[in-house]
Amino acid sequence: MKELNFKGVSLPAIGIGTWHMGDQPQMYAQEKATILYGLQHGATVIDTAEMYGEGNAEKLVGDVLQEFDRSKVFLISKFYPQNATKIKMKQALDRSLKRLKTDYLDLYLLHWRGSVPLAETVAGLVELQKAGKIRHWGVSNFDTDDLKELYALPNGEQVFANEDLYNLANRGIEYELLPWQRQQKLPLIAYSPVDQGDSRGQNLTQNEIIQDIAQAHQVTPMQLLLAWTIQANNVMAIPQTSNLEHMKQNIAAGEIKLSKAEMQQIDTQFPAPDSKQSLRMI
């Protein structure tokens, strides 16, 4: 698995997303086994949120963590913007920690911006960090102007990562946001990194170039899409799957290295943006 340097912390380039997980009792055992397999085979970052199933995903992750060394997991969760005040954030974190059956998070993210002033949110996160309840804090669904505003605040530059939608079908952040984050050495966590293989009415996995390059590497088109997302430095992908075979494929995608020529071929099919685009969220 390709390793990344996230502000001095060594992390795998591919982690485990948990959106839509933990909601179906009949799928619970399978989902638990799939996440556990991922942890055991190097995908040691888990991304979850209080929003996912209103805590169900966190409960699932909490059960998984009972069967794996917690100290070897980089655990991420997120809080609602309405919980971004100092008091509500602490309460939300305590609820998340209880569901996750742990006493700390490795990374706590503001899920998206709301009406609470960023300065108050940052101050609350720094307090939680000093209390040892979170090791790092960050943001999600932030665009360049949001991050510039954040960096202008006291302790704002301590932000550990920004988590945004990024995949081959959604390259808008490459025009301005990604270059700015690289300049600041701020890592990106890419959610929906394969766009479920389909976007804007075009099926990415059916594209001939994608299929040809995948075949050359003896991987699936979905694996190729995932590999493309992490080719850039300081980009981590967190694909979600409840399927053990797909988990194995996701982990294997972390070993795929695309040549410059292959990246250029892909660019001809799915061009990089040539102007600023509004930040997409799902």
UniProtKB/TrEMBL annotation:
Ligand binding (substrate): 111
Transmembrane segments: none
GO molecular function, a single term: oxidoreductase activity
Entry-linked CDD domains: AKR_YeaE
Domain NADP-dependent oxidoreductase: 13-267
Annotated InterPro entries: AKR (IPR020471), NAD(P)_OxRdtase_dom_sf (IPR036812), NADP_OxRdtase_dom (IPR023210)
Name recorded for this polypeptide: Aldo keto reductase
Source organism of this protein record: Pediococcus cellicola
Entry annotation: catalytic residues: 52
Record-marked site positions (Lowers pKa of active site Tyr): 78
